[in-house]
């Protein structure tokens, strides 16, 4: 079962998280405030962002990623899929039941 890692500006994070869960593309989305330092168009940038950790299923992950790409305000959003190897069975069952 995968978790999709997404970074977003604070003003977009709530809407992205709610849409993902509302559309049943993820069972849960955790939000963690962070500061990101990165290179953009040849310059070093530093911005406040929110990390979204979307708990999803194999079947829904491609649709989740496509939906985030549609809604995300960045030209090049950070969207990464992490496949988990060891997940508590009761959590895996809840996640699968919560995602269509």
Q: Can you tag this structure with a few keywords?
A:
four-stranded antiparallel sheet, 100 residues, alpha+beta, elongated, Alpha-Beta Plaits
Structure report:
- The chain is α+β, with helices and mostly antiparallel strands and 100 residues long.
- The chain has a single domain, classed as Alpha-Beta Plaits, CATH 3.30.70.
- Helices cover 37% and strands 38% of the residues.
- It is built from three helices and four strands; from the N terminus they run E-H-E-E-H-E-H.
- It has helices at residues 10-22, 58-71, 89-98; strands spanning 2-8, 28-40, 43-55, 79-83.
- The protein is elongated.
Question: What is the fold's blueprint, element by element?
Answer:
Blueprint: E1 2-8, H1 10-22, E2 28-40, E3 43-55, H2 58-71, E4 79-83, H3 89-98
Antiparallel strand pairs: 1-3, 1-4, 2-3
């Amino acid at each position: 079962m995968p978790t999709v890692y997404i970074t977003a500006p604070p003003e977009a994070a709530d809407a992205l998280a709610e849409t993902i869960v509302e559309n049943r593309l993820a069972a849960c989305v955790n939000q963690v405030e962070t500061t990101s330092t990165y290179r953009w168009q040849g310059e070093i940038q530093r911005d406040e962002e929110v990390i979204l950790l979307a708990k999803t299923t194999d079947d829904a992950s491609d649709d989740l990623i496509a939906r985030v790409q549609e809604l995300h305000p960045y030209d090049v959003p950070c969207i990464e899929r992490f496949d988990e190897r060891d997940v508590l069975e009761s959590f895996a069952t809840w996640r699968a039941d919560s995602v269509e």
